[in-house]
């Protein structure tokens, strides 16, 4: 193989080499949303070289970028909730097959960043808050992807854990600067990347948008040096799109290999790896020819290693790649079947689930129960197939099909769908000059200085900014103000839909806050208004964070609208044996949440239903953990996250007990917005980050105490702990013991699992390690897990092996290396980070 690579490079001209490190894709709508881009990134290889182009496609949850006729798989967080690397391998392999058949030979997957903050917009696209669990799943994902003769591109290296200011605000685009200790990088944010390099040999790794300790990731010698020190020698680094590349010489010398999507962007950045730019630094001697040659070698090598060069069956973008086995896999990921589930049973009082044969009427409540089901991410990792409805099985459809003729199943929408609030009528607005709103648009991002225009507008729509023929580097801001006169008395729900930043104030009180959004998203809020009583109405908007649609619209749901829907729902559930109520939120790439609270209408709905029906099952379709003010009022809570096109089939089987859920939380559920490691603004989303400014430092002050480690350290009870998840049976852990240490540094732990229940089930037994105080580690760290299936009455033995060289090491800041602390180590075994059934102290004097 090395001979083939050397021969190829010897036949390359300098022009050929330049083309290997510079993207050649002109992307419609910047590759966002429904725009169809066959290759989201393209390396156009000179034909005479006889090797294929590199055609890249998003993303981690399935074929994206507007391409149709693909499977809508569950989000990665669903698979991660199974705690099953084998399932992750199958998931990644199926997605890779669809990428391949659509003509992609590089899949921009998986996202293996740590779920540091519960409000991060990409939690559903990633795996876990824990680096050990993330690493095990990441290795399986990369191996599964590359089994299909395409390259994986694990991302985003490094310390990429928020959307807010990930590349900053126009026109300067000053990306967030993550201030984090090297020890925290080594122990929390690097392990998954290190694991895939050492154990899965990825063909590519994508660098992140943000700065790390003052330097952009794409030109950060410190972190890229770590990447190469792990043995990443036969793959290439690729910048994240548009904003990830900020220099020519600095990034090339640091080890950046490829710039995407290539060309001089309309966001104001130069074409840093263009032939002209690279030729200049080569001619003046600042970039050695050997560096360019090594960049090219890194691109070519994985094409040979992973079979791209000899793959003559690459597909076509127009092919329908949906397969029955992929739809079936989508179902099995969420439930059980021959594989493991991702649905998590958080609570199940009085054994409401599985539904008994006495249940004769089921009420399905909420938009998420039917075609309002939230089954995929909106942007980035996966947008969902444009023809999703051809394959989607909604929860209502799945439940009705499974229930058959013997059980009545009724549906009530109950509340307006998240994105279906009604426009506020023009007649409700009054400004100082009449029946309209006064709109002032500024020729900058922060509501100051020169104005583009002032006008009276009858209402607010997205069109107002688009009419100005703005470019990507021409941010505007706007203020809409006047008076709003409602016709009803009671709580009014407001929704802002926008790309950018927006706040709604009513009588000078903040009601809705849309945190910076790169793409179009929504935010909701609530205010109590009185009929015929005017209130001050003001919206502040800035387009600076947006890279797509600039503008906004406002909508509402009045007490009259809500009352009608809710009354219908209360009638439907009053005589039902069980009420299945759906809640959810929409977050994905491009924006972070502002609160863990669900939309107020959803919390109100759950509480209203619980007042008239004692058997409420709440099903959550969310990106992230959320608050549950109604938790004590309901019997059962199921988490499905974004569960893909087979959501209805899987849910029905779980409700009726055909399947026994065994998913486990891969991230902690906080008890409130103010509790947890990222509850301070300077830690998330960072100092000045929520202002329209050119400054955004993000302080990782929690250091090693990410997720459950923070709760352990501070003795705080989470709402639900990391690793928690129930089933329909009971499995006990017994006979735990340390079998001893071997000469090779291995410590063996043995235990028995005993299914004491009446049906088959699975348990994830978890091994944690507490270090000696001198190591300065959190109270305990996950160091092993195993998922075991048992029949009723079955006893199974499980063994863990700890390596003192791998599992008992910590990073020494003073020595700048991994080291070992002699002393007493505590071993913990349990079924969550808080449900610990056994612990034992063990003195270890050397690795």
What does this entry look like structurally?
With 847 residues, the chain is an alpha/beta fold. The protein folds into four domains: 304 residues, TIM Barrel, CATH 3.20.20; 249 residues, Glycoside hydrolase family 3 C-terminal domain (Rossmann fold), CATH 3.40.50.1700; 137 residues, Jelly Rolls (Sandwich); 114 residues, Immunoglobulins (Immunoglobulin-like). It is built from 19 helices and 35 strands. The strands form eight sheets. Strands 14, 15, 16, 17, 18, 19, 20, 21 and 22 form a nine-stranded antiparallel β-sheet that branches. Helix 4 packs parallel to helix 5, helix 5 packs parallel to helix 7 and helix 13 crosses helix 17. It is globular. It catalyses: Hydrolysis of terminal, non-reducing beta-D-glucosyl residues with release of beta-D-glucose. This is beta-glucosidase. It is an enzyme of class 3 (hydrolase). It comes from Kwoniella shandongensis. Its EC number is 3.2.1.21.
Characteristic key phrases:
847 residues; TIM Barrel; Rossmann fold; Jelly Rolls
CATH homologous superfamily placement of the largest domain: Glycoside hydrolase, family 3, N-terminal domain
CATH architecture of the largest domain: Alpha-Beta Barrel
- Class by helix and strand content? alpha/beta
Summarize the main sheet.
9 strands, antiparallel
The counted number of beta strands is: 35
Pfam family, one: Fn3-like
Domain PA14: 432-570
Catalytic activity: Hydrolysis of terminal, non-reducing beta-D-glucosyl residues with release of beta-D-glucose
Family: Belongs to the glycosyl hydrolase 3 family.
């Amino acid at each position: 193989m090395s001979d083939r690579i050397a021969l190829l490079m010897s036949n390359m001209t300098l022009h050929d080499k330049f083309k290997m490190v510079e993207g050649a894709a002109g992307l419609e709508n910047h590759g966002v949303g429904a725009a169809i881009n066959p290759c989201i990134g393209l390396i156009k290889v000179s034909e005479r070289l006889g090797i294929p182009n590199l055609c890249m496609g998003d993303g981690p949850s399935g074929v994206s970028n507007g391409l149709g006729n693909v499977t809508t798989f569950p989000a990665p967080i669903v698979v991660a909730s199974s705690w099953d690397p084998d399932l992750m391998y199958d998931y990644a392999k199926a997605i890779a097959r669809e990428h391949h058949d659509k003509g992609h030979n590089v899949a921009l997957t998986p996202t293996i960043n740590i779920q540091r903050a519960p409000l991060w917009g990409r939690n559903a696209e990633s795996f876990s808050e824990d680096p050990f669990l993330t690493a095990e799943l990441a290795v399986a994902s990369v191996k599964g992807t590359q089994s299909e003769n395409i390259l994986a591109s694990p991302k985003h290296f490094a310390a990429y854990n928020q959307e807010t200011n990930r590349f900053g605000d126009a026109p300067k685009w000053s990306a967030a600067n993550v201030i984090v200790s090297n020890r925290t990088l080594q122990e929390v944010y690097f392990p998954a990347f290190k694991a895939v390099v050492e154990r899965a040999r990825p063909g590519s790794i994508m660098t992140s948008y943000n700065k790390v300790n003052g330097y952009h990731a794409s030109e950060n010698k410190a972190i890229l040096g770590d990447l190469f020190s792990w043995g990443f020698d036969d793959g290439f680094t690729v910048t994240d799109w548009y904003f990830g590349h900020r220099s020519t010489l600095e990034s090339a010398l640091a080890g950046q290999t490829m710039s995407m999507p290539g060309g001089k962007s309309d966001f104001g950045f130069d074409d840093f790896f263009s032939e002209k730019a690279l030729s200049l630094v080569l001619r003046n001697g600042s970039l050695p020819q050997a560096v360019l040659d090594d960049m090219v070698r890194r691109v070519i090598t994985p094409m040979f290693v992973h079979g791209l060069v000899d793959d003559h069956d690459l597909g076509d973008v127009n092919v329908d790649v949906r397969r029955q086995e992929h739809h079936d896999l989508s179902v099995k990921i969420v439930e059980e079947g021959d594989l493991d589930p991702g649905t998590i049973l958080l609570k199940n009082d009085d054994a409401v689930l599985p539904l008994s044969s006495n249940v004769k009427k089921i009420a399905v409540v909420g938009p998420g129960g039917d075609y309002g089901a939230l089954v995929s991410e909106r942007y980035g990792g996966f947008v969902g197939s444009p023809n999703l409805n051809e394959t989607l099985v909604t929860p209502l459809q799945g439940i009705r099909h499974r229930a058959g003729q013997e059980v009545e199943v009724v549906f009530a929408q109950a509340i307006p769908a998240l994105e279906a609030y009604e426009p506020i009528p023009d007649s409700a607005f009054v400004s100082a000059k009449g029946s309209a709103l006064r709109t002032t648009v500024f020729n900058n991002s922060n509501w100051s200085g020169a104005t583009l225009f002032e006008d009276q507008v009858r209402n607010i729509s997205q069109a107002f900014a688009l009419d100005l023929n703005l470019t990507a580097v021409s941010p505007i801001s706007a203020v809409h103000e006047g008076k709003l006169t409602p016709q009803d008395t009671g709580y009014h729900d407001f929704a802002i839909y926008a790309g950018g930043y927006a706040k709604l104030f009513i009588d000078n009180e903040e009601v809705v806050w849309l945190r910076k959004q790169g793409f179009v998203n929504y935010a909701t809020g609530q205010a109590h208004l009185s009929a015929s009583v005017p209130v001050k109405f003001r919206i502040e908007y800035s387009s600076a964070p947006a890279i797509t649609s600039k503008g906004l619209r406002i909508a509402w749901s009045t007490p009259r609208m809500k009352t009608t829907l809710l009354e219908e729902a209360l009638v439907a559930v009053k005589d039902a044996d069980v009420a299945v109520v759906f809640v959810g939120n929409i977050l994905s790439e491009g924006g972070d949440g502002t609160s863990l609270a669900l939309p107020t209408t959803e919390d109100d709905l759950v509480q209203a239903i619980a007042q008239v029906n004692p058997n409420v099952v709440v099903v959550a379709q969310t990106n992230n953990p959320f608050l549950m003010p109604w938790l004590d009022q309901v019997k059962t809570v199921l988490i499905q996250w974004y569960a893909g096109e087979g959501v209805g089939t899987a849910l029905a089987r779980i409700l009726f007990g055909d399947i026994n859920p065994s998913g486990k939380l891969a991230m902690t559920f906080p008890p409130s917005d103010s509790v947890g490691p990222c509850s301070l603004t300077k830690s998330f989303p960072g100092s000045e980050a929520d202002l329209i400014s050119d400054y955004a430092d993000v302080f990782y002050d929690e250091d090693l105490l990410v997720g459950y480690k923070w709760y352990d350290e501070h003795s705080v009870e989470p709402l639900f702990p990391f690793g928690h998840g129930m089933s329909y049976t009971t499995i006990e852990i017994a006979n735990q013991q340390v079998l001893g240490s071997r000469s090779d540094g291995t410590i063996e732990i043995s235990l028995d699992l005993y299914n004491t229940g009446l049906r088959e089930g699975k348990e994830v037994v978890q091994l944690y390690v507490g270090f000696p105080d001198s190591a300065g580690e959190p109270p305990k760290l996950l160091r092993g897990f195993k998922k075991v299936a048992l029949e009723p009455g079955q006893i199974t033995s499980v063994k863990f092996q700890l390596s003192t060289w791998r599992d008992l090491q910590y990073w020494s800041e003073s020595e700048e290396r991994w080291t070992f602390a002699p002393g007493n180590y505590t071993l913990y075994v349990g079924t969550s980070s808080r449900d610990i059934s056994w612990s034992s102290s063990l003195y270890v004097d050397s690795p």
